[in-house]
Amino acid sequence: MLIQIPDVLSAEQVAAFRDVLERAAWAEGRETAGDQAATVKHNLQVPSDSDVARDLGEGVLHALARSPTYTAAALPLRVLPPMFNRYDPGMTFGAHTDNAIRTVPGSGGMRMRADVSTTIFLTAPEDYDGGELVIEDTYGSHAVKLPAGHMVVYPASSLHRVNPVTRGSRWASFFWAQSMVRDDGKRAMLYDLDVAIRQARAAMGDEAPAVLGLVSHYHNLLRMWAEL
Ligand code: NI
Question: Measured in whole angstroms, how far is the alpha carbon of residue 48 from the centre of its chain?
Answer without folding.
Answer: 16
